[in-house]
Amino acid sequence: MYLIFLLFFAASYSMSLSSADSVTIYEDFVQCFKNVTTISDIDLSDVVLPRTSISFTPTLRAYIRNARFNTSSMPKPSIIIVPRVDSHVQAAVICAKTLNLQLKIRSGGHDYDGLSYVSAVTFLVLDLSNFRNITVDLNDGGGSAWVQTGATLGELYYRIWEKSEVHAFPAGVCPTVGVGGHVSGGGYGHMIRKFGLTIDHVVDATIVDANGQIHDRKSMEEDLFWAIRGGGGGSFGVVLAFKVKLVTVPKTVTVFRVDKSVDENALDMVYKWQFVAPRTDPGLFMRVLLSSPTQNKTSTVNTKLRALYLGKADDVVLKMAEEFPELGLKKEDCKEMTWIQSLLWWMNHVDVDKVKPEILLEREPDSAKFLKRKSDYVEKEMTKPELNRLFQKLATLDRTGLVLNPYGGSLNVTAVNATAFPHRHKLYKIQHSVTWPDAGPEAERLYIGNLRTTYNIMTPFVSKNPRSSYLNYRDIDIGVNDHGADGYRKGEIYGRKYFGENFDRLVRVKTAVDPDNFFRNEQSIPTLPPNRR
Ligand code: FDA
Fold first, then answer.
1. CATH, domain range 253-337+366-461
2. How many CB atoms within 10 Å of residue 19?
């Protein structure tokens, strides 16, 4: 399946734009952009970047987060638009639509398969990295924030922390992830069991539609507001900003980490984890990481459990002694800290007193690793022999891992159609993961092959008909094996995996708000075929 994708891409390189084509596109685009806006020539050179601009390559590379797509042979956009104000975004939409060019929207660039900045067809990139204003208002109900989509999660956490240590926001634990893709695709972090998904806290949004018009929640209609909470960015419009409700957290929270080798009964721990982690106190989130033996270290699977408890260490130690003795949690394993420090700890800073929260503001431009991710949802606990088979196989693979994220708690109380994100009532989610250091097709074949192996092993134990996937763990493979399906039929293949029954409503919304399918990418929501409208 992967080979087909690569061949598809390779063929597309030869069809990629000549520089003459890209000059024509630039000239036509600039003409349109000037007609639609009041931009001066001086400002224009910072906003619309042709391939010949000295800023083109640094701007493109700044938010490429997967090194597989950072090579010279990867197709490049004809133009990068770096808007400064809303009207630039409106003009970008109007002009790209007028010239019939595909517009890729990029906020933080963390799309695992690079859909926000690479494509086999002629395309433009709309880079929202200047859209990073955040306004926190603690007096609005229990606290709220307007956050522009080019901001990072780290910036949002930092701005909240500047005002209050007991206010927080439930979203991902990687601070460089962009708000635009993360929130529109669902979003979760280490408080998911207590507070649900990130989208469960979105109360308003502003969006530029396919006609270049700006809407807020009131004027966009509830259907579209429903769709952009989990239905993914890039299918419905350019989200400019989200308004989110903050949550309150205790002044002291606890984190702990327990690492076990196979000799220390790691298998028993992981087996029992499946029963405890999705059912225990919603204030407790325990993630398990299973990884193949890293070079020169051990010969068995590494098992790491990392946890956040929204409370004191004594309480969680007592709780675990009762519910999860296999963990063997001791007070010495626990660290009490503030919520913002817990984020630093999840970023792998062991001594959080020595790290300043300002580190959350670091965007780490132009830093990318070679990687591939896939996802799964588990509805029924695996047996010990089944887990054992997985452990045995994982021990033979290099650099491959599975991250198990417990669900339950708040996720169970919300209906699966409350937002576009459908996978709420599951036991846990798996992220299949492989990250490697070397460039080149050989390494890619080897490591992605490893990932496929664990994905295949898990087939009997994960959701079926369809096998579900998390949109924010973008996986281009899941739409490839389509036996020639195109348009709506192809969209239905990946669409049902990402959105389950919510796919039908998403298609209806898409057809209503963007009937010409201007906002599209390789895995966007399709419009209904004309004979079904
Ligand atoms: P990017 O800019 O690449 O956009 C992703 C998609 O959204 C693209 O299709 C893009 O077109 C679209 N889009 C972006 N901005 C838009 C806008 N303003 N309007 C409309 N469409 C827009 N997830 C999670 O839930 N919890 C986690 O803890 C993590 N952790 C994590 C760590 C790392 C290192 C990576 C690389 C990824 C994650 N993720 C994650 C996954 C992450 O949530 C997902 O990749 C998001 O889509 C990333 O959003 P960005 O804006 O950074 O990506």
1. 3.40.462.20
2. 11
User: Is residue 473 flagged as an active site residue?
Assistant: yes
Cα of 525 to ligand 1 centre, how many Å?
16
Ligand 1 pocket residue status of 75, Cβ below 6 Å: no
Domain spanning 2-127, CATH architecture: 2-Layer Sandwich (3.30)
- The answer for residues whose C-beta is within 8 angstroms of residue 519's C-beta and 6 or more apart is 103, 105, 210, 234, 235, 236, 237
CATH code at 134-248:
3.30.465.10
- Cα–Cα distance, 169 to 343 (Å, whole number): 11
> Candidates 69, 472, 524: which one to mutate for ligand 1, based on the most atoms within 8 Å of Cβ?
472
pLDDT category of residue 484 using cuts at 50, 70 and 90: low
pLDDT band at 2 (very low <50, low <70, confident <90, very high): very low
Is 491 within 8 Å of 506 (Cβ atoms)? no
0.85 exceeded by the pTM? yes
The two tokens of residue 118 are 């690479």
Confidence label for 483 from pLDDT (cuts 50, 70 and 90):
low
The pair of three-digit structure tokens given for residue 418, joined into one six-digit string: 């409350």
Q: How far apart are CA 208 and CA 148, in angstroms?
A: 13
Catalytic one of 473, 488, 494, 498:
473
Helix (H) or strand (E) holding 435: strand 428-436
Q: Are 80 and 92 in contact (CB under 8 A)?
A: no
Ligand 1: distance of its center to the CA of 368 in Å?
Answer: 15
Average pLDDT, integer, range 212-216 = 98
Rounded (5°) CA angle 263-451-346: 65
pLDDT surpassing 50 at residue 392? yes
The radius of gyration of the chain's CA atoms, rounded to the nearest angstrom, is: 23
Q: Cα(105)–Cα(126) distance, rounded to whole angstroms?
A: 5
Q: Over the stretch 3-36, which tens digit does the pLDDT of each residue have?
A: 344 334 434 433 445 666 888 999 999 999 999 9
Report the SS3 class of residue 492.
Answer: helix
Nearest-atom index, ligand 1, CA of 473: 41
